[in-house]
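Internal ticket - ligand job 420, 2-acetamido-2-deoxy-beta-D-glucopyranose:
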Amino acid sequence: MKSSRILYLVVFLSKFCISFSVVASFESMTKSHGYSKKSAAHEQDQQKSPQNSAVVPVPYPLPGYGSFTARSTVFSPLAFGAKGDGVADDSLVDGTLLAPARVSTWSKSSPYQWLNFKWVHNFTIKGTGFINGQGSQWWHSSPQLGGNQALRFYAGGNITVRDITIMNSALCHLKFDSCVGVEVNNVSISSPETSPNTDGIHLQNTRDTKIHNSNIACGDDCISIQTGCSNLHVHHINCGPGHGISIGGLGKDNSLGCVSNIKVENIYLQNTLSGVRIKTWQGGAGTVKNVSFYNIRVSNVAIPVVIDQFYCDKSRCRNQTRAVAISDVSYNQIIGTYSVQPMHLACSDDVPCTGVDLTDVRLKTSSSSYNQGFLPALCWNSYGKSQPPLLPSSIDDCLRRNINGDLIKKVERSHDSACQ
Ligand SMILES: *[C@@H]1O[C@H](CO)[C@@H](O)[C@H](O)[C@H]1NC(C)=O
Ligand SMILES: *[C@@H]1O[C@H](CO)[C@@H](O)[C@H](O)[C@H]1NC(C)=O
Ligand SMILES: *[C@@H]1O[C@H](CO)[C@@H](O)[C@H](O)[C@H]1NC(C)=O
Ligand SMILES: *[C@@H]1O[C@H](CO)[C@@H](O)[C@H](O)[C@H]1NC(C)=O
Ligand SMILES: *[C@@H]1O[C@H](CO)[C@@H](O)[C@H](O)[C@H]1NC(C)=O
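stdout (C-alpha cells):
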C-alpha cells in the first residue's frame, strides 16, 4: 500500500464527553477521488430525531492525498459530521482506517497513540470495517522502538466495541485503561505470530467487562489482564497464534497487583505458547483471587496451564520473599494437546498458592510437536484439591492438600488488605 493512499486519523479528545462518527470508505475514496454514499453514519441519531437525517457529513478531508505529511493529516472528527454532544452514539467504522506505515511519520513526543478515546461514556464502535495499524516497520526495528496502540480507551464508561477487525498494530491492538463497563463482541484481531508485544486485548484498572465471540491471533497475549481488573467474563474466544490468555505479569518492581473475579470459559486455543496463565514477579504485593477457567480446549499449546510466580524477563532475577498472593483458582475441563508440559504451577516459596482446584484435566502430547520430549506436570508450593479424570498421571499428585488452612487464611487476609 503506497503511503499516498493513507487515510490517517489522530483523535485527541479532552475534558468532555464526546462521541463521534468515523466512516472511512477508503476503497471508494481512492477509486473515485470523491466520497461515497455510504458516508452517512448517524444511525442512532436518525432514529432519535428524524429531522436530523438531512444532516450530511462534510466531504472527507483528503489528508496528505498525494503528498503525505504528518502535520497535514491531523484533523477533528467533527469534520466528519460528529456531534460531540455526549449523547449521540453514532460511531461506525466501515472501509479501512490505515495508520501511517513509516515510523518516521509519527510524532516523537507521543508515538504511543493512534485512535485514542478519553473520558467517553455510553459509546459504541462497530461496523464491518478494518483498523489497520500497519505496524511491521515497528516490529522489525532494532532496537525495538515501541510504537502505537491501535485503539485505546482511557477512563471511559459503558463502552462497546463490536464487529470490527483490528489488525497489524505496532503494539497492542485494543486497550482499555481505567474503564468501567466494557463489552467486546464479535471482533477479529490479527497480527503475525512473529510481531513482538502485540497483545490482542489489553486490560488494566478496568472492571465489569465482557469479552466474547471473537477471534484473536497475534504475537503476544491474546487477552492480557493487568492490575486493577475485576469482574471480567471472557467466553467463546478463539486464540492463536499468540501467548494465550494471561493474568499479569503483576508485581513488577515490588508493585501492587490486584485482580479478582475473573471467569474464562469456552475458549479454544491453538498453537499458543501458553493456554491460561497467571504470572507474577517476585517482590510484588496484593492478590489474584477467585479466577475460574472452564472448558478450555487446547490444540498444540506449549504449556496449557501455567502459574508462574517467578516471572522474569532476564536470564536471572533476584530472589525475593514477597509475592502477589494467588488464591481460589479453578481449572475445570482443560482438554486437548500440549507440546512441552501439561501444567506448570510454580508458586512462591513464601506465599503459597491456595485453593487451586483441578477437575477433569485431560492433556495429551501433541503429535505435531517438534519437541525432543515432554516434561511432566510441575506443582511447586501449590495447595488445593484435584478430581479425576486427570491426565497425564503426573497431574494426579501434583497439588499439596490444604492442611494448614488457618495459616493460609492469614496469608490471604494480609495480602487482601493491600488491595482494598
Ligand atoms: C449512559 O446511559 C445510561 C442509561 O442508558 C444513563 O443512565 C447514564 O446517565 C449515561 N451516562 C452518561 C455519562 O451519559
Ligand atoms: C452505564 O450504564 C448504566 C445503565 O445502563 C448506568 O446506570 C451507568 O451509570 C453507566 N455507567 C457509566 C460509567 O456511564
Ligand atoms: C460479526 O461481524 C461481522 C462483520 O465483521 C458481521 O458481518 C456479522 O454479522 C457479525 N455477527 C454478529 C452475530 O453480529
Ligand atoms: C467470584 O467471581 C464470580 C464472577 O466471576 C462472582 O460471581 C462471584 O461472586 C465471586 N465470588 C466471590 C466469593 O467473590
Ligand atoms: C533463587 O532461588 C532458586 C532456588 O530456590 C535458585 O535456584 C536460584 O539460583 C536463585 N536465584 C538467584 C538469582 O539467587
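Auto-summary: The chain has four helices and 24 strands. Residues 1-74 have pLDDT under 50 and may be disordered.
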